[in-house]
Amino acid sequence: MKTNEVPFSGVKLPGIPMLIVNLLFFIGIVVAFIWLVSSSLNETLMVALIIADCVLFIVNLILWGGFMQIEPNEARVMIFFGKYEGTVKQNGYFWVNPFYNKSKLTLRARNLDADPIKVNDKNGNPVMIGVVVVWRVDDTYKAAFNVDTASLSSVTTAANGSVSVVNTAAHKMVAYENFVKVQSDAALRNVAGLYAYDQTGTAHENELTLRNGGEEVNDILESQLNERLSIAGIQVIEARINYLAYAPEIAAVMLRRQQADAIIAAREKIVDGAVGMVKMALTKLSDENIIELDEDKKAAMVSNLLVVLCSEENAQPVLNAGTLHQ
To answer: Residue ranges of the domains in the chain?
Structure first.
């Protein structure tokens, strides 16, 4: 029993020559019927020949059901009375056994632009995250037999009250899109739970987050999607996060936290620069013997310079009219 896609190995004839043969066959049946009706043959023999001609006409009608056309990036799954016989991906116009069920599948790439969903990141913060997935059918056997497409079939009612079920390639692709969407949501929730939205004050500087992960997070998401969708014979060509934001209920709080982190980082940089400038000033004064300062004067100078350099407002100079020691 086949469990994976295999090329179709049955009889597959060129469609145009078979079309001509079938037309000639049909014309021959019609001409024979006209000749039999107008001939003076024995009545019993004539009836037998007319019945044979009608049987040939039914055979001719059945033969017309063997034609199929395959466009680029399309495939036909060949099923013979419930048994999978292979897949035809060769482009062109062909004739096969008319009793084959020629299930049509498209192999063209499709986009899924999922709406943002609310998930929890590694720290438990609710975030809104969306994803774009580019996918295509890769294994026609798994796509045809491992995914339920019958539940999305179209049920139509004719004027006479008869009910028919239509399961076209379009309805199958809708079923695959729903399958990809559900699995994309599941994979997205899993990936979002592995990383924090952004770096916090206690986080390591090189820690991977959803916000700075970029291609690395997208590659992990794509890998998980391929693993989840392999059961349906679907290949993910590309998956990337296209929307990322804090959930509305904590967005304002997180904005203030980010502002506080930015202020603290800026202050740290200012202090580091101020300390370096003070150190350079003291070293230069000492090396060039411009002035000798005791420890108290050095402490006062350091204090004054740090106030000037770290202050948010411009320093207001105060002139000392006395001596240095006043």
So the answer is: 12-106, 110-246, 253-310
